Prior knowledge:
The chain has 10 helices and no strands. The chain has helices at residues 30-42, 46-61, 68-74, 79-85, 90-114, 119-136, 144-150, 157-180, 185-209, 213-230.
Amino acid sequence: xxxxGLHQTTNANAPKGGTNATAGTGADGTAGTAARTAxxxxxxxxxxxxxxxxxxxxxxxxxxxxxxxxxxxxxxATLGSVYHFFPGGKQELAVAAVQRGDEEFSDILREILxxxxxxxxxxxxxxxxxxxxxxxxxxxxxxxxxxxxxxxAGRLPDIQRAAAEAFARWxxxxxxxxxxAGVPEQDADDLACTVISTLEGAELAxxxxxxxxPLRLAGTxxxxxxxxxxx
Length: 231
């Protein structure tokens, strides 16, 4: 199954205006109005653009190296708009960015795991997708949650809390997959924690080495471990 890299956030540089394409318009103008309305619905609102930009930039640069001014420029929004939606400033925005990464990864995680009946094969498919996405991004698009949280460890508890909730949600998705395959509850809980922790570490190692070997090996050995609990 071909999917976008799991931790690659949606492009922050969303369309900033209407398209130049024209649509056929009836005598009463309703067809053209409907087309314009449909196009407008595809353009993200200001808040969404800001969160997308923050998620992408913090994913690549970390929290401290990402100034609010850069986020506003990337989102094609004014600084006033950023503070309107996020009066708590960069810290509040970082929490929203982490939560966005959490939701996006949770959705894709479910999609990949649900596509494979065998949880061991599902984890292999997951690591393959992570490895492919990281390589395609030239090793810059790792986990947006980890990249943001590591730079705030011990300093900004709201961001740490959002990151912890993200990891717990991902573990829950893996846990559900394992339980559905008949793995006992406590074993499934332990394995889910092991899967997410191992993949996060392997992805970071792959980024640093600019080599997907850590992720491929992690997938192979996690699959063997899961199989051993089902034998």
